[in-house]
Amino acid sequence: MARTEDYTHDGPSALREAPVSTILDAVEQAARGDRVTVRRLFEALGSGSFLPLMMVPALAVVSPLSGIPGFSSFCGLAIALVAGQMVIGKRHLWAPGWLMRREIRAKRARNAVDWLRRPARWLEWAARPRLRFLVTPPLVKMLQALCLLAGLSMPFLELVPFSSSLLGAAVVTLSVAMLARDGLLALIGLAPFVAAGAVIAGVLG
Description:
Blueprint: E1 4-8, H1 19-30, E2 35-37, H2 38-44, H3 50-62, H4 71-87, E3 92-96, H5 97-101, E4 103-105, H6 106-126, H7 140-153, H8 163-180, H9 183-189, H10 191-204
Antiparallel strand pairs: 1-3, 2-4
C-alpha cells in the first residue's frame, strides 16, 4: 500500500495579505541544493492550508516548467487531488506517497519563482475584499468544483498549446480570490471556463 501523508487545513487567514508571494517565498526557500521534492514544498508551507497547496501546482503549470513533458498532467492531478478534498469538506489533506516523492531540479524551481514574481505582485495588488457572497458558502463550492474540473482536464489537454497554462492561471486567480474574499476577482477567474464552454457549445451546435 502506498504511503500517505496528512496535512492540516488551518484556513487561509495567514496568507490573505500576499498569498502568491508567500507561496513563492516558501518554494524558493525549499528549492535549495540540486533537487526538490513535493514533500519538501508541502512542508515548507507550514501547516498547509488547502488553497496554498493547490496553488503550488497551479503556479508551476503557469511557469516555464509546463514545458517539461508530462508535467502539466502531473500538476493537473495534484490540483484535482486538493480541490476534490475541498469540495467534499475534508478537514485534513490526504496525499499519496508517490506524489510526495516526486521531484524536480531545484534550479528550475527557482527560475520559475523568479518568472512568477511580477504577475504575483499584480494579482496581489488587484485583490481586495469585494462581493464576498461569491466566495463564501454555498457559492464557494462552485469555485472549488471548477478548480477540480480544471485539474482533471489538464492531462487531456497536454498536447494543446497553452491550454494547461490558461487553466492553471484560472486556478491561481480563483485561489487568490477565495483567500482574499474577492468575488470580483473570482468572476475574472471564471473567464477561461466561460470561453471554453462557448467553444464547446459552438462545436456541438
